[in-house]
Amino acid sequence: MGAKMKDLQKSSKKQKSLGKRKKTYALLIYGGGGHGRSMIDAVRVLGKYEIVGIVDDGLAPGSEVMGVPVLGDVHILSELFSKGVHSAINAVGGIGDVERRIKVFESLQREGFDFPTIIHPSAIVEPSAQLSFGVQILPHAYVGTQAQIGFGVIVNNGAIVSHDCVIEDYASLAPGAMLAGEAKVGRAVQVGMGATINLRLTIGERAWIGNSAVVKRDVPAGTVVHAGTIWPLPG
Question: Structure pTM?
Fold first, then answer.
């Protein structure tokens, strides 16, 4: 009887341990490049999702990225969705190729995938900030009070989004970018590493702010502010 009771106690403890395990959700990552590897790390740290594989239009099926199998290209999305994989991360980096990033979102949306917001545990997001779907907040980034972050936005390592900023869909802030309070960043804008956007300024749609640029006035849509310069240019 004593041995039997011990076995029952062990079984009970095992069941309790299993009951405490977090439920995980199947997830694919689209893009196996540098940003894709960053997202693999972020997802693993969260422990909420099971990465079933990577979809990439340039990597060979059967290869691996950080131990995650490459399943195929865009043509495999329908099959994956039918097998119960309904969540996806768009890990095609925005800097330099925002149009491709948007097209990947469109391909995933056509198949019905949803886009979880990923916030690295070391990032700080104030409770009053509003984040849309598909947002990616990477290590040591900060999103301030009542900031509004649109669909598919990337706030990269150490970037700062101050209070009341508005960042519209598909925009990307590179590592160390800094937005002062009430700045507005338009749709698909790219803000480079270490760039600074001053208080209450507006960056127009699809503008490009180069690395370490300092922006002191509004930037019209489609404008390129070159790296290391101060906007507006003299003269």
Answer: 0.89
